[in-house]
Fold:
Amino acid sequence: MDADDTQPASHPVFTRCVRCKYALHGLPAEHACPECGLRFDERCALFPVTNTKQVLAVWVAIFTGGWVSLEHLPGVVNFAVLSAWRKTGVLAALVWFPLAIIGVTMLIRSYRRGFKVAITTDGLIVHLPGFSTDLISWNTVGGVSVKQVRKGKPQIATLRFANGRKSVNIGGVCNVFPTRADVDRFAQHVAARILV
Structure:
C-alpha cells in the first residue's frame, strides 16, 4: 500500500457522511464510513442546493394549499346542501389536504438531511424535494444527459436507469446546478462511474 493511500484528503469533499451524518474528519481520501459502510474516494463530488428561496417557494405552495383546504373541509358536514361551486371546493380540499400532509412530511424528512446530490463510490445519493433516495447503485444507472435549459435558469440533468423504463430529472426548482458548467460536471462524474 502506498503511503499516499493512508493520508487524509487535503480538502475532503465530505466532512460528514451523506447517508448517516457520521463525522468523516481525518479519514483517508479512500475510505468507508465507519457507521454505515458507504464508500468514498477522491473522485466523489457533492452538489448542494444553491438557491434555498426556490425550495422555500415549494414549502409556501404546499402550506398555502393546505390552509385553503382547511377552510373548505368543514363543508363536508353539510355537503348535500352546498352549491355546486362550494361542493367543488370541498372535493378539492379532500384531495389536496392529504397530499399536502404527505408533501410536508417528505419535505421535512429531506430538509433534515439537507438538500443535495452526492456522488459516492457506491452510487448516487439524492436528497431533494419530490425525489429522495439513500442510494442509487451505479449498476442500476443506465446513463445521464443534460436537458436544454435557457441560459440563466437552473440546469437539469436527466438520470436514466439501466432497465430503460424509468428516468428522473435532477435540478430545476431545487437549483442544484446553477450553471451549465455545474450540470456538465455532474454528467461527466456519473458517466465516468458507470463506464467502469
User: Anything to note?
Assistant: The chain has a mean pLDDT of 78. The chain is about 35% helix and 20% strand.
